Amino acid sequence: MKIEVISARLEDVKADSVVIQLFEGTEAPEIAITLPESIKKEIAPSIERGGFRAKLGQVLPTYPSSVSVAGCFMLLGLGNKQDFSLEAVRQAHGYAIIRAKEMGMRNMVIPIPSLPPYSVPEITSSVVEALSLASYRFDRYKSKVEDGKQPELIQLLVGSDVKAMCDAAAREAAVVSEAVKLARDIANMPSGDLPPKKMAEVAAEVGRISGFSTRVIEAEELERMGMGGIISVGKGSSNPPVLIIMEYDGGGETYAVVGKGVVFDSGGISIKPSEKMEEMKYDKSGAAAVIGLMKAVAELKLPIKLVGIVPAVENLPSGRALKPGDIVRFRNGKTAEIISTDAEGRLILADALAYASEMKPKAIIDLATLTGACVIALGTHASGLFSNNDGLAEALIKAGEKVGERLWRLPLWKEYFEQIKSEVADMKNVGGRPAGAITAAAFLMNFVGDGIPWAHIDIAGTAWTQESSPEKSYIPKGATGVGVRLLVEFLKSRSERS
Ligand code: BES
Ligand code: ZN
Ligand code: ZN
């Protein structure tokens, strides 16, 4: 599927389908783009007939009676004008491409509407993301792919005055979308085919192509470095743990991102119920997002230094596994009493956060499918945000709003730290059922160096979509790749600021 930006008159194009965006109106739908009279006339009967309300994502294929610029005009609902946002653009155009695929369209034209307060390049970018992300399938294990074919060519029509800017926006959006798809691939991979060392190889390979370096620290050295959290969680599996460190140098300030890379979370000795345990292959979604983010930032050549840190482990029970009651010592010297071996994410992140802090970065952000409690609190509609810094939290929330990956901040009051006090160690790894997402974040905060702005993003509810959740057009079932677009946007805003 080739996507290109062109500047031409709609009357002069030739395609087998042209998308026409409309808003839901009080009486009839309202066309959202400037159209030549001839085309308006051709689609008027279909609009007036009344069946098409232009609800968000609603698609009505109409076929002009005379020879026209296209064999089909695909009327596309953008929903209510009051609710319009870039997210509506993404949702709507995601549905457009899904329908186009079903209808076997080979060659499409999408005029990009000008809809303030959003700029035409911004809308172009959202359209490209939607087209690219809605077409994603994890089908590498299928002998036969049943899906329809994608269009060969999609041309985005813009005015000549903004063509250059839209070109750049489209190129950037394509880079970011590929990075999101890489993150989805990594998270969707069965753990049997992606043990920690393999994940490190994938990261190194991506780095070679995209332009960042990768170091892989293996178990023996982790032991010497005092990474007791990663070692203890990893020791139950015959696939040894690793710490993956990716570095991109675009000059400028250093940011660190940390991703939970539990390739499979059985719970360990505190074993999980077997129902839905297969979903725990997604427990590496934080790591997947960090690797995707490194790819995007390196390819976009953002003027920052970015360090991606992924502790990768497999949490399994065995004769060598970590046990409740054990006490673990981490990289920064602190200790924790193990109450549940299923609260393993915080143990590996503890070492990674302590290590990241040693680099004294401008900020540390971690992404983790950390707690079921976060899913109970926010469902699948937002990721949990926890931070020791208001400015950082606000910037992340703003980036999330823009890209359609919402964050909701929860408090880190000192009372929550009381919940994880231990009789025998500096802390315990579980603070009881109340506020489970917060006590997990409080645990992590013990490993962030003094004065370093830090944010923890719990993506347990947003990292993958299940059968039961309504499918979003550009987020097919399975891994979502959440975090990549969010942090690209955040880092872009930071690099523009300086
Ligand atoms: N990976 C899970 C968290 C999780 C659960 C993510 C369900 C998405 C869906 C994590 O390692 C875990 O098991 N957390 C426990 C912590 C508890 C033992 C304090 C949980 O949330 O139940
Ligand atoms: Zn667990
Ligand atoms: Zn886990």
UniProtKB/TrEMBL annotation:
PROSITE patterns: CYTOSOL_AP. InterPro entries: Leucine_aapep/pepB, Macro_dom-like, Peptidase_M17_C, Peptidase_M17_leu_NH2_pept, Peptidase_M17_N. It is found in: Cytoplasm. Keywords: Aminopeptidase, Cytoplasm, Hydrolase, Manganese, Metal-binding, Protease. One of its GO terms (biological process) is proteolysis. One of its GO terms (molecular function) is metalloaminopeptidase activity. The active site is at K272, R346. Pfam families: Peptidase_M17, Peptidase_M17_N. One of its GO terms (cellular component) is cytoplasm. Its cofactor is Mn(2+). Binds 2 manganese ions per subunit. Residues 340-347 form the Cytosol aminopeptidase domain. Mn(2+) 1 binds at D265, D342, E344. CDD domains: Peptidase_M17. The keyword Zinc-finger does not apply. It is an enzyme of class 3 (hydrolase). Mn(2+) 2 binds at K260, D265, D283, E344. It catalyses: Release of an N-terminal amino acid, preferentially leucine, but not glutamic or aspartic acids; Release of an N-terminal amino acid, Xaa-|-Yaa-, in which Xaa is preferably Leu, but may be other amino acids including Pro although not Arg or Lys, and Yaa may be Pro. Amino acid amides and methyl esters are also readily hydrolyzed, but rates on arylamides are exceedingly low. Its EC number is 3.4.11.1, 3.4.11.10. Presumably involved in the processing and regular turnover of intracellular proteins. Catalyzes the removal of unsubstituted N-terminal amino acids from various peptides. Belongs to the peptidase M17 family. This is Probable cytosol aminopeptidase. It comes from Candidatus Terraquivivens tikiterensis. The gene is pepA.
